[in-house]
Amino acid sequence: MVFLFSSISSFPQYGMNCEIRQIKINVFNPGVEYEMGLGVNSTLDVRVAWQMALEPASEAPMENLDFFPTITVQNRYYHNFNGRERRRKPIYGNSGNYLAPSAAIFSPGSRVVENRIVDGVHGYGGLVYGVQRSYDSGISFSIDAGAGYYVGPFKGGIYPVVNLSLGWIVSEKRWCVGR
Which domain of life does the UniProt lineage start with (predicted)? Predict the structure, then answer.
């Protein structure tokens, strides 16, 4: 009896899940993004892009932005799929709000920062909160912000993390019920 009720209560969640997988082409930070469903409300998101980021090797990293080749990985937990469905809002393309541990590796190569040569990769690990919306046309938008600990060939520190993606879903595998 317990087995029967537990399987019945878990069955409705199957249709309220994330996409099994989707591939997106981003135009704001040019690159490719792959998001894969891991569980009922969680995904693994991997982005390879030419991304705008702060220059952590600078004395004032918040004032110096640059574009770097980047690999970003997030384990997103979408916390409001059920509420969006109750309000008849779409969850297509993982349209929801999420909390995610986030890590990125930047590979800028050798560069001159404040009259000194900085060489090597740098990265961060941190936590972000974000919003993603996808539309039937295939347009997808996501933004997340939080804080991360930056490490590399400089003195490490905690700095803000902001990721912005704007692009198109070019491939998808539906798991959510309906569109």
Answer: Bacteria
**N-terminal to C-terminal alpha carbon distance within the chain:** 34
Residue found by looking up tokens 């704007």 in the block: 166
The pLDDT tens digits of the residues spanning 12-38 come to 444 446 788 899 999 988 999 999 988
| Nearest C-alpha neighbor of 84 from the set 48, 126, 141, 134 | 134
- Using one digit for the tens of pLDDT, what is the confidence trace for 117-156? 888 888 999 999 999 999 888 899 999 999 999 998 888 8
The two tokens of residue 140 are 């997808």
User: 17 with 164: CB under 8 angstroms?
Assistant: no
CB-based burial label for 69 (10 Å; 0-12, 13-18, 19+): middle
- pTM of this structure: 0.81
Structure tokens at 13: 């969640």
Beta strands in the chain (DSSP E): 21-26, 31-37, 42-54, 65-78, 96-106, 111-113, 116-118, 122-134, 139-151, 157-173
